[in-house]
Amino acid sequence: MRHIISVFKYFFVAVFLVLGIPYLIPPVYNFTEPQPFKGNLFYNPYAGIDSNKWLKSNFHEHSNAWSGMTSGKESTVEDIKKTYKELNYDIIGISDYMLVNPESDAMVYEYSLSLSKSHYLVFGDSCVKWFYIPFIQNVNQKQFMINYLKSDRNYIAVAHPSMVNAFSFGDIKYLTNYDLIEIIRHERIMLDYFDTVLSNGHKVFLLAGDDGHNIKKPTEVGEGFTLINSPSKSQSDLMKSLKAGKSIGVKHTGKDESLSSKTALLKTLPVITAFDVDSSGYIKIKLNRKAPVIYFVGQGGIVKKEVLNSDTASYKFSETDTYIRTVAVCEGYTYYLNPVFRYEKNTEIIQPSVNSARTLIIRVTGALSVFTAIFLLIYSGRKKE
Questions:
Q1: How deeply is 8 buried, as exposed, middle or buried, from its count of CB atoms within 10 A (0-12, 13-18, 19+)?
Q2: Is the pLDDT reported for residue 20 higher than 90?
Q3: Could you tell me the pLDDT band of residue 10, with boundaries at 50, 70 and 90?
Q4: What's residue 1's pLDDT?
Q5: With CB atoms counted within 10 Å of each terminal CB, which end of the chain scores lower, N or C?
Q6: Cα 292 from Cα 353, distance rounded (Å)
């Protein structure tokens, strides 16, 4: 019996170390107070778009990877490809958990080792990174994970930020060094996160997708996707267009959830034929047909202007506007555009620095706590023996 108890003690010690030590590695950061966009120049993400080059894309989809042990076991790669081809998608991305799927049209995987749903889509890496912080993460630990995943050759997207409150608005206000944020996940629309990011001056663009886990459920297929204005389907061109903001998040709003209905709608999607911004901040958007509503949203997610039943709409930046994003409500689908925002020449993006003193204190305190707990666990009851 003593031997069994001893084995269990060492087992729990090992588990404690595996789960606890990762929390000692991330540093404490000095986050500067973010500032809204400013300047007399205006960034137009849709400058020079070709209206014939819009590609319908879903980068967030799960298959029956890992022998069906993860969520997605109902979806074979063959069924995913077949279904999205029937829906006339141009790019079918498969973002399995911790696995780069060779059948995916884009090199992407979902980093998903945090049980708190602080997940990321990693674009462009052929190998998966495995360091993890298993449970709840504070803003320092989330920033560390973004920096850990980020490289010069990849792009990082914050995935489904509202799920299980994985990212608070306080987190999103300060986090940096990522490229995209997911605003649509089949049933969820997360524009409040997007507006928080933009209102605090972070140059981050949108991503929309199904994040489907069961290809047989119509409510998880064709509900959200990203239109990308790209010269080709190559990984390089797609990523450059996403990085530049030449993309539109699209949400299905039709009442009929059947795939046949969505297929018919997708064949007649509205097309944004022009999006111009002049040097004074005058925005003009043109579609190939009338939209019931086109509206413009600014700082804090406030609607600044609405235009009804028109194929064109315009808005002029006021002196207090920091960014303006456009929304076009069309029959069956709503288009969410990336923002036009103010900027200055040679603006430097300030990354948070490491607070060495606080980092040392937390690491020493944490290490002492871990080893004290281990000591008490191993040696408890020895006097009785």
A1: exposed
A2: no
A3: low
A4: 62
A5: N
A6: 47
Structure tokens at 153: 């050759």
| Residue 47 vs residues 95, 240, 291, 381: alpha-carbon distances, Å | 29, 14, 22, 72
- Structure token digits, residue 129: 């990174």
**Residue 31 DSSP SS3:** coil
Q: Does pLDDT of 154 surpass 90?
A: yes
CA-based torsion, 178, 54, 323, 275: positive or negative: positive
Q: What is the mean pLDDT of the chain?
A: 92
134 has a pLDDT exceeding 70: yes
Q: Indicate the DSSP class of residue 33.
A: P
CB of 336 closer than 8 Å to CB of 325:
yes
Domain chopping of the chain, boundaries: 2-28+358-379, 41-346
Neighbours of 215 (CB within 10 A): 25
Residue 181 CB neighbour total at 10 angstroms: 25
* pLDDT reported for residue 6: 66
* This prediction's pTM: 0.93
Q: Rounded CA gap, 304 and 315, in Å?
A: 9
What is the 8-class DSSP label of residue 220? G
Tell me how many helices (H) and strands (E) the chain has.
8, 19
Across 16-30, 65-79, 119-133, 233-247, least confident range:
16-30
pLDDT tens for each residue of 198-218: 999 999 999 999 999 999 999
Q: Which of 267, 229, 270 is nearest to 248 (CA)?
A: 229
CA distances from 21 to 128, 131, 186, 363 (A): 21, 11, 36, 10
Pick from 79, 50, 44: which is nearest to 64 by CA?
Answer: 79
CA 62 – CA 214 distance, rounded (Å): 8
Q: Is 243 exposed, middle or buried (0-12, 13-18, 19+ CB in 10 A)?
A: middle
> What phi and psi, each to the nearest 5 degrees, are found at residue 356?
-65, -40
Q: Tokens 């120049």 map to which residue? A: 41
The answer to whether the Cα torsion of 200, 202, 207, 211 is positive or negative is negative
pLDDT given at position 356: 96
What is the sign of the dihedral through the CA atoms of 289, 293, 296 and 301? negative
* Torsion (CA) 269, 274, 279, 280 in degrees, nearest 10: -60
